[in-house]
Structure formats: C-alpha cells, structure tokens
Amino acid sequence: MTKYTKLNLSADLATDPRIQVTSSFFGLSPKATYLPTYSPLKAVRLEFSSEAGQALAQALKADPTKRAAKLSALHWVSPSDFGNYQLEGCYTQDGTFAALRLYQFESLSYRAISELCLFEGPEVAEVTKVLGAA
Questions:
Q1: What are the phi and psi torsion angles at 129 (to 5°)?
Q2: Which of 19, 52, 105, 127 could disulfide-pair with 77, CB 3.0 to 4.6 Å?
Q3: Which among 41, 32, 48, 19 is positioned nearest to 110, based on CA atoms?
Q4: pTM for the complete prediction?
Q5: Pairing of strands 39-48, 109-112
Q6: Distance in angstroms (rounded) separating the CA atoms of residues 70 and 60
Q7: How do residues 9-21 score in pLDDT, each as one tens digit?
Q8: CA–CA dist 22, 53 (Å, integer)
Q9: Distance of CA 50 to CAs 56, 64, 134, Å?
Q10: Is residue 35 within 8 Å of residue 94, measured between CB atoms?
Q11: Can you say whether the dihedral through the CA atoms of 89, 70, 130, 86 is positive or negative?
Q12: Is the confidence at residue 27, as pLDDT, over 90?
C-alpha cells in the first residue's frame, strides 16, 4: 500500500481543513486523518491501460453531481501491472470521504489530467469500488 505523503495529491489535500496530517516517531510515520469522523485515510496508487484510463478520465471530467455514478458504471475497469494512466486516491476506513486524481504518463513523467475530485457520503461506496477497496 502507498503512503499518503507519497501521493502527489497529498499536497493539494493538505490545504483542506477536513484533513489533518500528524507525524509520530520523529516524523518517520505520518498519518492523515479525516477530521469530521476521525477516520484514518488509506492511500492507493493504481495504473491502468490506455482504454481504461480514457474511460476514467471521462468519468472524472464529468459534472460533479454525476461523477460517482459514472465511476461506478466502470465495473469492467481493472488495474494493470503497467499502464500509461495512474489513478491516485485516498479514502477513509469508515467510507465517509474519498479523493481521486488521474495522471497520464507523458514526456517521462506523470501529468495530472483531472482535477482533484472529492467525494463524501453515500457516493464514496461507489467510488471505492474503482479503487478495489469495496
């Protein structure tokens, strides 16, 4: 499992007042917590094929009220060992919050192709299916 601080999206989430990052054991073990429920965040980084990545990109660029439904409709999407799309995400253990951002490999590095997408409430269960957490 990926560490939360190693995610590229963690810098953007650090500005969210609902997320608190604390360090323990001399700063070697940082942990992120979703403050409304005090649930720890789990971090995920998955790679996808071109076809799956394009489908994810369309879902994440959709209207914010329809994103969760479009992501849950992608039941055929599964991570690959090597792909040119990378999905970074984090979610709470209690299923109340999730954040996603999609990157595409271009010019020897990953470039963000979606905005930071935040999900709360019942839509989190739909979103975490794509992350393999449900």
A1: -65, -40
A2: 52
A3: 48
A4: 0.87
A5: unpaired
A6: 8
A7: 888 888 899 999 8
A8: 33
A9: 10, 23, 24
A10: no
A11: negative
A12: no
